[in-house]
Design a protein that fits this description.
Length: 362
């Protein structure tokens, strides 16, 4: 899963990037000339993998991961060349999810791009830049089709859906919120439109706001997000990053004192999984314990292909153990004794936390 962190300059994107990935990238104001993106892999904590590793003592333990891309801060007019201009576009064109970091924290030493804290204004600024960037791509493609010497049926179908998107964008609607058919969405896949991508809001608070659970524009932001079906995560990013650098015992104490029940990476991962319709199945053995992200409603045979195409082609059966059963009885042998290990066919729908051993013949 690829995730792009977007937002105005000085909202805490790079601090969040460091928190999620364990990196130590210098926090700077991207609008002051830095135009390259930061990229790193973040491991998704999973207590089920920890439990399996304790049982199997594998040579290798592999968690599910998120590739996080922190792009330079956007400003009004970025889509037309202002600030870092279009240089950020290629960095996030292929991401699966956009995480819009929204600043509500107060800090006199960190100057806001617009000079004041106004989350709804900032949301509108970023949405407009995404919208304008997509409009530019659509207008160029429409022009190319209309001026082509030869136009196919596929081109005409593409032209129709592009015009539909153009009309929506010109009304201020994001493509993600347009009512498009499965066929229309399929035609748009190759474009990787920004406003078509799923999005999560991360509201970056200061400690006082975290303790009071209040910040400027909260109700309006929550109402807007609910209407657009955008999940909202509230974090105190700077403080959590500082806590994360402590040893585990001190970290636990500070998190409890501040009422941080779930870490930032846990919050983002669980929200992203839910928003993108993902689950993880697990494989376990002495060589490796591993989490495998897949889409909900994936069949056993398709899940096997996640590991290797040969396993999918030669699929025979899937031995399935529910994680909760293994946790309850402590070993796979006891699970078998209880008759709780099932043999499933190719059309079995894999569930989150299924521990699977695939039988196959190449």
């Amino acid at each position: 899963m690829k995730t792009g962190l977007i937002g105005l300059p000085s909202v805490g994107k790079t601090t969040l990037f460091n928190l999620l990935t364990g990196s130590n990238i210098e926090v700077t104001n991207f609008s002051q000339g830095k135009v390259e993106a930061n990229q790193c892999i973040a491991k998704i904590p999973d207590s089920r993998i920890d439990f399996l590793a304790e049982i199997y003592k594998p040579k290798k333990t592999t968690y599910a991961t998120i590739e996080v891309i922190d792009v330079p801060g956007l400003v009004k007019g970025s889509s037309t060349g202002k600030g870092v201009g279009n240089q950020f576009l290629d960095n996030i064109r292929k991401v699966d999810l956009l995480v819009h970091v929204i600043r509500v924290f107060n800090n006199e030493n960190v100057i806001h791009e617009e000079g004041s804290i106004d989350p709804m204004r900032d949301i509108e600024t970023i949405n407009l830049e995404l919208l304008f960037a997509d409009l530019g791509v659509i207008e160029n493609r429409i022009k190319r089709i209309q001026t082509a010497k030869k136009v196919t049926k596929e081109n005409l179908a593409e032209l129709e859906v592009l015009k539909k998107c153009q009309e929506g964008l010109e009304k201020g609607l994001l493509i993600h919120n347009l009512e498009l058919s499965a066929e229309e969405n399929e035609l748009l896949k190759t474009f990787s439109f920004f406003s078509e991508k799923p999005m999560i809001f991360v509201v970056n608070m200061d400690e006082k706001q975290w303790e009071s659970k209040q910040y400027p524009g909260k109700e309006e932001l929550k109402e807007f997000a609910a209407d657009k079906k955008i999940p909202v995560i509230e974090l105190c990013v700077k403080t959590e990053l500082e806590i994360n650098q402590l040893d585990p015992e001190d970290r636990k104490i500070f998190m409890e004192d501040l009422g941080i029940e779930v870490s930032g990476i846990d919050k983002l991962a669980s929200t992203a999984y839910e928003h993108l319709g993902l689950i993880s199945f697990l494989t376990a053995g002495q060589d490796e314990v591993r989490a495998w992200p897949i889409k909900k409603n994936t069949t056993a045979r398709k899940a096997a292909g996640k590991i290797h195409s040969d396993i999918e082609k030669g699929f025979i059966r899937a031995e399935v153990c529910k994680f909760d059963h293994l946790k309850e009885y402590g070993s796979m042998n006891k699970v078998k004794e209880k008759g709780l290990l099932s043999l499933e066919g190719k059309d079995y729908i894999v569930e989150d936390g299924d521990i699977i051993n695939f039988r196959f013949n190449v």
